[in-house]
Specification:
By secondary structure, the protein is an alpha/beta fold. It has helices spanning 82-101, 153-165, 196-200, 241-255, 274-278, 291-303, 339-347, 360-370, and strands at 3-6, 9-11, 15-19, 23-27, 34-42, 46-56, 121-126, 132-135, 142-143, 171-178, 182-188, 206-209, 212-216, 220-224, 227-231, 262-265, 283-288, 309-313, 327-330, 352-357, 374-382, 392-399.
Amino acid sequence: MGMILESLTPAYGGYSVARDEKVILIKGAIPGEVVDVEIEEKKKDYSVGSVVTVIEPSGDRVEPPCPVFGRCGGCQLQFIQYERQLSMKDEVLRDTLRRLGGIEAPFEPPLSGDQWHYRRRAQFKVSRSGEIGFFRESSREVITFEECPLMHEGINAIYRQIKEKCQVRNLSDIHIALGDTPVALLKGKDYDTSILETFVETGLSGIAYHDSIAYGGAFTGFDLNGLRYTVSPWTFFQAHWELNREVARLLVEQLMPLEGKSVLDLYAGAGNFSLPAAALAKEVVAVEENPYAVEDGKRNLELNGLKNCKIVRASAEKYRIGKKFGVIILDPPRPGLTSEVAKKVLENPPDEIVYISCNPATLARDLKKLRDKYEIRSVRLIDFFPNTFHIESIAFLKVR
């Protein structure tokens, strides 16, 4: 028997917090439960443990539908009823802003969509023995399965066919993106590309191998609220596409009226927010570093006949703002804004800022920097990744 503890509050990373002589982060517990915990790691200020037995279960505990849940590292929260997942993530987001940023912001209700079969993007790993699946948590061991309940059914169907038909030895990664057609990106070494024919038989419309197209079309397409949005296999896009459309709609609604305004999108990708803004604004400047995303963005502007959007290939750090923008959209990677970008924004303050975050800790730090010049109008959880610990959010700021 380990330690009998009461789980108190949720914490980022899929943990819940208990206290003994010091803080204990517990994997596999829901706040309010009494659990038997085995300590796996001791740090100076806290310990990490896992649930061995649930002694007093929460009414929000459910049976995970996935047979490899707990072994596969893909998701962490399948044992928690979905509404409780949302409330826990919302609580973690609020607490992080308060604790790390000293921020008490007005919160809107969480934005959420389908809990299952929502992912239109998959990154499968391949073991040396040729098994395809996802890594076990904190491991390079590949866990294989029949289907993933988070994946769109179309991706699961292709995954099953690849397992059945394709020679995957010497591949390390198989990335699949599913818009109106499915495309794949294959990575590996010493791979005989003649074997790609077997991948074609799975129904893929395009296959990229490392940095070039090996077969078929170079992109897949999506409906972005009436706009045509395309991405190549090397370009990031939000896997929960239906929810992404809701976020793009919300962003435009909150910035209305956009007529006559200039918009700067500093981490633009292929134009996920730039395109909807350009349909209404006076002008949009989209800044993006990834050359594949830049090409996708140019294609998207052409497909939609948008003449008032300029795409600049540069990092957010190297781009010189040089003029007054009415709106700046910030959608940085996990590390958040670098000090150069935060300084640049504050030296060229727009009337409004939209900050889309995938990391509550760096959001708290960056909002703290912006707070002197900006009022935080609202913050909202976006659950792009149900059944995982990931927390994304959107904040709207207005100049004081």
